[in-house]
Write a structure and sequence with these properties.
Structural class of chain B: mainly beta
Shape of chain B: globular
Number of helices of chain A: 0
Largest sheet of chain A: 6 strands, mixed
Mean pLDDT of chain A: 93
Distance between the termini of chain A: 40 Å
Radius of gyration of chain A: 13 Å
Helix content of chain A: under 10%
Largest sheet of chain B: 7 strands, mixed
Shape of chain A: globular
Order of helices and strands of chain B: EEEEEEEEEEE
Low-confidence stretches of chain A: none
Oligomer: heterodimer
């Protein structure tokens, strides 16, 4: 069973601070996705990373895929209350089955 | 237009009852899924269908039976509901199953078994 561990599990910060969320596994993935989920809604896809070492930016969010394609990080610059939510990483294999991490709950206080 | 829609949003029922959750996607995707999210927010795949064919069936009790009448619909029927079935069930779709799978989720069905 492929496991994805996210850290930290909970993060509470003030508006304007920077933060990094980590997603680690002992398994190699063909691609890795990051999702954000708000209360009462389904996860929404933020980004897909495919190549080892790949870096993608989405406004204030920077995503990196590890060189060995086993881990990933999400960095948020100058966090805003609108960034509050549950962040989930998911690794996909050639078999077409996504394994989700255990989530990071982010709270950004005004 | 809602891309992936599932009904009902909330489902409260007694132990032992049978219930169904419906899901439809209007994205033209080939692959649809059912995921279960527990109280700790952990998302686990239950089933996956590609063009109406079952391709993933995780260790889910036989009481759970998915049905895909066409590639735009994937319903989930649950027999003899148990307390442990209480969770949020998400339907999702993706253009295709594979290494670059991108999932589009519905807004979930919160099932409470009393």
């Amino acid at each position: 069973t492929q496991l994805l561990e996210q850290s930290p599990q909970f993060l509470s910060i003030q508006e304007g601070e920077n933060l990094t969320v980590y997603c680690n596994s002992s398994s190699v993935f063909s691609s890795l996705q990051w999702y954000r989920q708000e209360p009462g809604e389904g996860p929404v896809l933020l980004v897909t990373v495919v190549t080892g070492g790949e870096v993608k930016k989405l406004k204030r969010l920077t995503f990196q895929f590890g060189d060995a394609r086993k881990d990933s990080s999400l960095h948020i610059t100058a966090a805003q209350p609108g960034d509050t939510g549950l962040y989930l990483c998911a690794g996909a294999t050639n078999a077409g089955k996504s394994t989700f991490g255990d989530g990071t709950t982010l709270t950004v206080k005004p | 237009d809602t891309a992936v829609s599932q009904t009902p949003k909330y489902l409260v029922t007694q132990m032992g009852n049978d219930k169904s959750i419906k899901c439809e996607q209007n994205l033209g995707h080939d692959t649809m899924y059912w995921y279960k999210q527990d109280s700790k927010k952990f998302l686990k795949i239950m089933f996956s269908y590609n063009n109406k064919e079952l391709i993933i069936n995780e260790t889910v009790p036989n009481r759970f039976s998915p049905k895909s009448p066409d590639k735009a619909h994937l319903n989930l029927h649950i027999n003899s509901l148990e307390l442990g079935d209480s969770a949020v069930y998400f339907c999702a779709s993706s253009p295709r199953a594979g290494w670059d799978e991108k999932l589009f989720f519905g807004s979930g069905t919160q099932l409470s078994v009393l």
